Known about the structure:
Elements (H helix, E strand, L loop, with lengths): L1 E5 L2 H14 L4 E5 L5 E3 L2 E3 L1 H10 L16 H8 L10 H15 L4 H11 L5 E4 L6 E6 L2 E4 H7 L8 E5 L10 H7 L2 E4 L8 H6 L3 H6 L5 E4 L2 E2 L2 E2 L4 H7 L7 H8 L5 E5 L6 H6 L3 E5 L8 H14 L1
Parallel strand pairs: 1-2, 1-9, 2-5, 9-10, 10-13, 13-14
Antiparallel strand pairs: 3-4, 6-7, 6-8, 11-12
Helix pairs in contact: 1-2, 1-13, 4-5
Amino acid sequence: MILALAGGTGGSKIVDGLAQVVGQDDLVAIVNTGDDGDFYGLRVCPDLDINMYVLARVVDGRGWGFADDTFRCLEGLETYGNEAWFGLGDRDLATHLHRTARLAEGLPLSEVTRELCDRLGVAARLLPMTDDTVRTRIRTTSGEHSFQEYLVRDGASEDIERIEMRGVASSHPAPGVIEAIEAADRVVICPSSPIVSIGTILAVPGVRPALAARRDEVVAISPIVVNAPVEGPAARFLAGAGYRECSAVQMARLYADVAGTFVLDEQDVARVPVLEDFGVRARATEIVMREPADRPRLAEFALNAVTA
Ligand code: FO1
């Protein structure tokens, strides 16, 4: 079994690639839930849904939400004076309505996720990092914001003063999380944000030590080429967490205790000896996934890098 640790859009591309290389039956993904939030009384889990829709082949071309969705409900909510900056499509809302109802019946998020995946024909196992409530809170000069307010409503336009993963210290890994880490043949840390996606998963008590015990089988893929993130405002999140340097070397340093192997871009090949100096096996390839075929290519490269 191959295990992935993933956030949303960037992570889901490698999850997709791994599914194509090893097959969904042999794939488990532990997914960040710090981005989750409640909209109009509904529980929305963007990273779980992005990965689920990708694996179900129903994701929209922009990388999130249901393909060809309409937004009539959201338009109606706006008519009644509600804020409508978070793009919840009509078909997507069915996912959140069902999830919210099942959670209210007392099912844990991991069970509801399994149910949603089964119904959408996803054979891979998607595990929320925890069934407990963890919320990433972003403090800027204008105040404290939820993750989606900062990213989507405000366009990640402000520098971050502080990032808090509220609830994470008292959270527990969801059923199957530690077992999957222990049982995996190889573990792939996807090129998601090292702070607000992978960092949140690693902060769930028990996850980091379990992964460190499997360090030789863990490979991390850099989300950074030279000094710029492949996508999203990773540099702002890094700076907000106190890391001034935005580079593959910085990534490898952040993961050095849990990932014995690190895949970085070929433009960063000159940094390979730096990484090897601090005990990380480094392998370079093109890490930007521009075309669909890049996903299985990079996934396969990462899996092979563990033993190559
Ligand atoms: N991202 C956006 O940039 N704008 C949106 O309006 C938006 C809505 C949305 C709705 C459901 C969902 O599952 C994801 C959605 N995303 C949207 C993506 C999401 O904000 C982020 O990409 C992830 O949270 C980061 O991993």
